[in-house]
Sequence to fold (234 residues):
Amino acid sequence: MTPEHPEQAQDENIQPDSSPGAVTDSARRRFTAALGGGAVILTLAGKPVWANQCTVSGMMSGNLSAPKGTPCQGCTPGYWGACQHLDSWVGFKPTDTFNAVFGVTEYTDCSGNPYTLLDVLNLNGSGIKTCCTNGSGKNKNNNNNNCNQPAGTANTFCQNNPTGSMPGSIGSDPVSTNLGFQAVAALLSAANPQVNYGYTAGQIIDMFRNNYLTNGAKLKDTFDMLNNRGCPLN
Fold:
């Protein structure tokens, strides 16, 4: 989210500068703020110029679109998690587990079962994973909105509602608030050849694995920025 600038609040009649230079500078400031100085920029070697322009480092340099005006693009978790959009997934399946795809172990429900990619697109609750307990103190899954639901919950919902929207929150992220939620959207945007994302799916996985435990919040903000550049898919 673009931070508010106190100087703008001083005069509501002042209109923002819409010139190309001003737009470029605004985008650069937003990315710099999100990255906290570039802690999670992934350098791309051997990529074509147009692809580099759509990476974080490229956008910070002012390259906001590819040659011939093709815009940098990305689709949000809300798009990828909607049941009616599952036919837009390329290279990955909604039933693939997050841990297997990203090479991590933390994304499980309260019984230790791995969450699917579709599940993680619905782990958008506030805070961190919460396991509710029964009277004996053992972890259990239940339907309390504050508790993480069992793995496969989102997949079951879409099986029963193939033309529906997102199942809704099934809990919170086990590592950092909304991190996996944004990471899956980044992965699917990068994997779809119709989305001019600037990264490959493999690079998104590497970026996640290299930063998720040490720069989780900044990584989430970076993916959030990349995923909100306009989705070309129906």
Remarks:
- The chain is about 35% helix and 0% strand.
